[in-house]
Amino acid sequence: MKIFLLGSGPAGAWAHAFLDKGAAASAAKPEIVIVDGLAPHDALVALDVAPTDILVLAQQAPFVSDGAPADVSIDAVRHEAQKAILAIELARRIPQTLLLHPAEVAEWPQLITGLLGVNSSEVPPLAEPLAIGLVAADESAAVSASQSPSPSLLRTYLAPLLTAAEHPASIVVAWSRDCFLYGDAPGEGLPATVELAGRGRILAYGPYMPLPQGHWRATAYLGFSADVGSMPFILEVDTDAGITRGFFEVKQGGIFTLELDFEVTDPFHPVEFRLVSQDSALEGLASLIEIRLEQSPTTGARV
Known about the structure:
- About 25% of the residues lie in helices and about 30% in strands.
- The protein folds into 2 domains: about 1-140, Rossmann fold, CATH 3.40.50; about 170-295, Jelly Rolls (Sandwich), CATH 2.60.120.
- The protein contains 5 helices and 14 strands.
């Protein structure tokens, strides 16, 4: 029996210690591989080299609870998203997954001993882990000059990824306007409305966040002012698999949706969307409201 343990903070440390105690009491003497600390790509390669029987997840849930720190940087969110995506990719590849939920701490010893096929009385007791709900202060990155994440990014992107390992078949996340950057002022946050007057150009881009491997459908919610006239635009997504483009023409003001199917081959590669105006304009306003992303095994990349 081979067990992969992906854990962090006190929860991960406790699970590691208890698994070691349980393995010593087990007749099967399972091999335990600690994933935390391995590069995400290396962890997936290790599965290809030697298949694993069981995945144990004992991760923290940083930045998403009511007590989460306020000074979280955008880079810290990307880091936690990569860890969550690693859990998703491992759960998809390993036959059995045991999730150690923070709300069920008292049941963890029985869950692990049952997994190992040993009697709980044969394993020396271990004090329950503390402070399971939040990442330790030294594990989070403080806000710097970089863009800081909005609460919506934590709620509509990171939180669904953190819970998706339990049901990894279909995932839905969303990136709101304040996740994106302004094409006319690179590095600055995207304003609520963008002036179209001037040459054709990139109006909005970002958010450089990773997504799990597979086929995705993006639904972009876009707004245009009544004076926009007739104007062509491009919405494109850049992943490690290439660039997928959707062409559309706006002929009147209003709120519109545009669907774009694309593929993610590298789940740890940052994904970038770009909203591009193709022609010059004298007037008009545009707004990138939100991009909703839904993963489905039946969708395919389409140009």
